[in-house]
Amino acid sequence: MDREELQQTDIWTLFQQGQDYARMIDIFNKTDLNFRMFNGDQNEGLIVEGIEKLELNYIKPIVRYKVGVVISNNWAINYSSENFENNEFKATSENVCKLLNKKAAKIWERENIDKRIQKICKNAAINGECVVYVEYDKKKATPKIKILSKVDVYYGNENNDEIEEQPYILIKQRVSVIEARDIAKEYGVSEDKIQCIMGDNQNQEESGEEAKLEKDEMVTIVTKLYKKDGKVHFAKATRYCDIKKDTDTGLTYYPVIHLIWEEKEGSARGQGEVEPLIANQLEVNKTLMRRALVTKLTAYATKVVNVDQIENPEEVNTVGAVIRVNGDSNVQDVNKVFTNITPAQMSPDVKLLMNDLINVSRELANASDVASGSLTNSTLQNASGRAILAVQQAAQQPLKEQVESVKYFIECFARILLDHIKTYNSDGLLMEEEVVGQNGETETQLIPVQGSILEKLQADVKVDVTPKGSFDKFAQEESLENLLKAGYFSVQRLPELKMYLETLDDDSVMPKQRILKVIKKREEEQQKIAQINAEAELMKQRAMQFINNDPDAQAQQLSEASMQQAM
Q1: pLDDT in tens, 321-331
Q2: Residues 332 and 233 grouped into a single domain
Q3: What is the pTM of this model?
């Protein structure tokens, strides 16, 4: 089929515009460079004579440290109906939110979200941004998370970092021609149109060198997400074939989340940790190679030889060899035909320069020894756990923005998850609940939730954050022990404890949300006990009244009770 006769799809035209913009801001080259610098392939294209290429990669430990700090929390999705105004539906809404929280916790564990977040943060720290596409498995009633490179996503408005405000989002996918044609066939594309799906050369702007090497004939599929009448629609196309035309997903939110490491003013893209460090890293590598070269030259002195007066000049560099000199010679004569030239020693300033470059770069990147927990400082070595925690928290304060970004990322995921559940379960949904059975063992029950209830549900989304660092755990345990000793966990002092916890910041080392849940459970138990006591007191009063009545009144009371039971 002649490509020149084929008409390009509208989606592909938008895709080309996105690629043109990406080339203009050099996204593709910067992405490859950032990952190469992180992975230690830092001297590409560098020509060095006399010494092997050397690297002292300090970028990787800086990135790993910062990612470690950002993900050093336990995260939990919490749906609530606190702000729901419909009082009649509030109790039902609260029960559904409890079931959703348990479902979200199971999804979190089953999909290994903690590990996914680690990879997402790492990619964002390296390359400024990481994008996640959420698909919903209707059969399993669970989301599937796909992590995308920033070079595979194009925004309708590249100057706006708000996903929900985008006029459209393009997602690029690289698949084999056979797979693309099978997808088109599933969507009901005619056979003659399917033949328009042909291999292309769009692989050179893939992320990573190995991704540019393709074994099979491949083709690019572009998915367009856009909103119409408040609902998310999608369409798919290759360059010459519309695989899937306008389709209403029923979703309210774009199933796309991006984690921006550090915002860039007026851009939907972000900046990571690697790019600002590249210049210093290259200079460190060059200085290291210069030192190695000088060390090599000074370790092995240069020999000057008069080959006309030496019988075996080829043996000059052989260890222990006998050098035969022509004629009758003494030591002075030998020095005239054979001598060593000792090169000048390298200035110690060279080593100092290299170390200064590394240390200053680490300090400017807020990745000093103190921040990273290296207790080289004599004061810190003798400090208490709380003191060390305070120093570390102060040093890690600049990463608070990134921690909040991850929290917001998880909140977006929680909203998308709820959006998927409500949209794709209009006929209702079975949700799991753990209950204590008659034998005292925990059992799992399936609780049916009607689609009409899901549709009406208006749940607030919060993300519970609990620090999990070693010093955080120490401070946490110490704080809980102090509260216990002070008697704040007694029923009488629970209101005080609740008020105290509600004033704490969400990122406090105190497990605020977990304790509040325990308090809420205790309050519910106390309410049940109070209700049981009130009912018992009422029955007691009625019994005393019955006893004190005359026989005729007693007979009438018994008759009324029998009639009520019959009804």
Answers
A1: 677 777 665 65
A2: no
A3: 0.73
